[in-house]
Amino acid sequence: MIGFAGLSHLGLNYSLATAAKGFDVVAFDPDRELTARCTAGDFPIEEPGFRELFAEHRARIRYTSEHTALAGCDLVFYSLDVRTNDRNESDVGPLTALIHDTAPHLSAETTAVVLSQVSPGYMRQLDAGMRDRSPAVFYYQVETLIFGRAVERAMEPERFIVGAADPTRPLPTRFQEWHTAFGCPVLVMRFESAELAKIAINFFLVSAVATTNTLAEVCEAIGADWGEIVPALRLDKRIGPHAYLSPGLGIAGGNLERDLVTVQKIAAERGTEASIVSAWQTNSRHRRDWALRRIHELVLSKNAEPRLAIWGLAYKQDTHSVKNSPALALARSLPAVEKLAFDPMVKSLAEPIPSLSLAASALEACDGADALAVLTPWPEFSAIDPGLIRKQMRGNILIDPFALLDRQACRAAGFSYHKLGS
Known about the structure:
Helix content: 40-55%
CATH superfamily of the largest domain: NAD(P)-binding Rossmann-like Domain
Distance between the termini: 55 Å
Number of helices: 16
Structural class: alpha/beta
Shape: globular
């Protein structure tokens, strides 16, 4: 029996993927209302393929709030999402509390694996502190969760990175069996290396994001087209076919910003040099406000009482998360402007934003608008006829940073069309 403790986004997806690989799973969370909902198939998350996978493998997974259910598991993953605050700092308090609450119920034959992302130093301290609290042996494994692709990433991981107190010792048999079921490389290293490995991966991603956004803006300034340059980069072996080369609105979500802040704190405490991180953050904030600058230039400078349509509130497609969303940042920056927004998954906001209302459909959001800003690249938006959009609007400004809509069709419909990188 394999257990998962903590049923946030991470735990729900990894526990279900484990069941889909043929293991019997106990999925634990102290929230009884949550486990009752999950048992009934009523989940608090939306991910492509999740409900279909649950329908196929629900017989292998049991949701519970009984601590004793974990006692019979020989492998237990701690899989609670680690939240970040407004300064993008991690709050590991709930994770630590969950471990302290449940680990005493585990046996000496249990392998406990922290799957949640933690900062360097956390696991070594936890391992030392748990020796008098629990007989279980603790390991760390780097999670690979990507919102909007969580099922895919849980079912088909690229690799497993495992942190151990002593990486020279073989991993426990049950842990190895679980790895084998997923058929990908397993890298075992010391705790600190594994904790930093995830940050290192995100840093290389951030560098690609910042480089792409910087050069895409140069394209806009000199009349080049970033889309014409990308194929040349894909063919360069030093960069490769899978490099992140799509211009965007800065770094959104929570994980990348959290890792930047984590390294800044380490640099400040240990005296290392990390000024490049501040440059990335500045670049990200500048690029996030691209749409806002276009709105000031094309709309606010010419209309005293404009009405703005916004398509998309989530920080990216296929997720309901609005953490560090460029759309919400734009909406907050225009408190006096009337705004009507639509997102297919975000149906409410935790905190109201001045002059922002939510529409029931994408076209309804365009009713009487002077400008439309497409700020989340939901695929369904690309299927909407530009002619119908234009008829709903009062003005003709279309800000489409991700080139989701066909540029020629938009111009034929009478739009003044604007995208990133050209």
